[in-house]
Amino acid sequence: MITLKEALKLSPQELDSLREDLKEKIEEKNEVNAYIDVNVVAEGVPIAIKDNIQVKGWSVTSGSNILHGYIAPYSATVIERLLEAGCSPFGRTNMDEFAMGSTTESSCYGKTLNPHNHDCVPGGSSGGSAAAVAAGLAVAALGSDTGGSIRQPAAFCGIVGMKPTYGRVSRYGLGAYASSLDQIGPMTQNVEDAAILYDIISGYDPKDSTSINMDTPKISDRLDPDRKLTIATLPEYIKDASEDVRKAYDKAIGALEAAGHTIVEKELMDAKYDISAYYITATAEATTNLARYDGIRYGNRKEGENLKELFVKTRSEGFGDEVKRRILLGNFVLSSGYYDAYYVKAQKVRHLIKEEYDKLFSEVDLILSPVAPRTAYEFGALADPLEMYLSDIYTISVNLAGLPAISLPVDTADNGMPVGLQLIAKAFDEQTLFDGALSLETQLKS
């Protein structure tokens, strides 16, 4: 598949040919179910779009029955920036319903298959975007990351996935799951493409109250894989990861050392605190954000004899099991009897997590971490929701602290599945993040 960097240099005629080629491939590999539908807004380099990002005139449903019939009346800021840069939204990709899940199985459109092994999950919630890039069905894609939803599917499908610093990329036009955690980011074939796409979509947006008003110099023009960095490893933190992941971790350390970086061993607090703080925070915010889906203003409506019955029927039939589960959890932790015991305590832990990262980044430039405890597993392997929640153990602290991170493929497991690892940087230091990632990618390919 042609890279984003190469595609941006194509003539209009060549781009037409590229789009037709992609449509044929999507039809040929229809069983992967990476796309919900394929449509184009304007001429330009085709970029696949996750189904929770508004594109004017498109049906946008966040993978949920409750939004069937909704047509986006405006485009998200990231879509406007794609168009300005000569790119074109091209098809909406499958996802876990309202970005709640790690496998795409909660999508009302059915599950997406991992291109490397159709019996395995592609990861989630941006599983459709990851599978599209990995299967050669997209030049690049946009996903959203609330607790690892870009990085985990990128790792499972063997592509590059990047989560920006909170506030670097506008959330205007993104279907909200947890507003203080969500970020849109690039999913690409390589690190340089990720930097190019990040440059296109990042920057201040007055329409987003959480957008950071600061200079965002182009990173892709200044990429430096030869820059020498101090990188922290976490030997205790990864001890519960699978043998395949630990082997890839050692391989990455060796590659970074060979590239001339300084490797130092550090520690982070037990990740069980990350899980607790994350799921309390995320479900509380989700409960509030999803209250708007009531059948009155937009989307799917189930008629009832009175207003209460309309609400109950619409939400009962419109939301899937995982979304209902998280709404219940969110209402529980926000209820008057438990707000202080759970929600307030989670915010204190979140503050401690951020402080711990700040302390670590006063000593190092980057942190090398697993993305998931193991490679992509077979569908149905994690039938217990709690097991699925625990699979996010290595990614969620990054969102709680608002940091940038990038997942890239490092190794192939004995079962043939990709193994991805992530690099984490301090807030607003995307340049160092991309420099380190490009250095690791270059060394692994040499």
Structural topology:
Elements: H1 4-7, H2 12-28, E1 35-40, E2 45-50, H3 77-84, E3 87-93, H4 127-134, E4 141-145, H5 151-157, E5 160-163, E6 183-188, H6 191-201, E7 230-233, H7 243-258, E8 262-265, H8 272-289, H9 307-318, H10 321-334, H11 339-361, E9 366-370, H12 385-390, H13 396-401, E10 405-412, E11 418-425, H14 430-445
Helix pairs in contact: 4-5, 7-14, 8-10, 8-11
Verbal overview:
It is a single chain. The protein has 446 residues and is α/β, with parallel strands linked by helices. The longest helix is centred in the C-terminal third of the chain and has 23 residues, at 339-361. An eleven-stranded mixed β-sheet has the order 1-3-2-4-6-5-10-11-9-7-8, with helices on both faces. The chain is built from 14 helices and eleven strands. Helix 4 (127-134) packs parallel to helix 5, helix 8 (272-289) packs across helix 10 (321-334) and helix 8 crosses helix 11 (339-361). The protein is 37% helix and 14% strand. It has helices at 4-7, 12-28, 77-84, 127-134, 151-157, 191-201, 243-258, 272-289, 307-318, 321-334, 339-361, 385-390, 396-401, 430-445, and strands spanning 35-40, 45-50, 87-93, 141-145, 160-163, 183-188, 230-233, 262-265, 366-370, 405-412, 418-425.
Report the CATH C-level class.
Alpha Beta
Per CATH, which architecture?
Answer: Alpha-Beta Complex
> Helix/strand-derived class?
alpha/beta
Query: How is the biggest beta sheet arranged?
Result: 11 strands, mixed
CATH topology: Amidase signature (AS) enzymes
Rg: 21 Å
Low-confidence stretches: none
Strand content: 5-15%
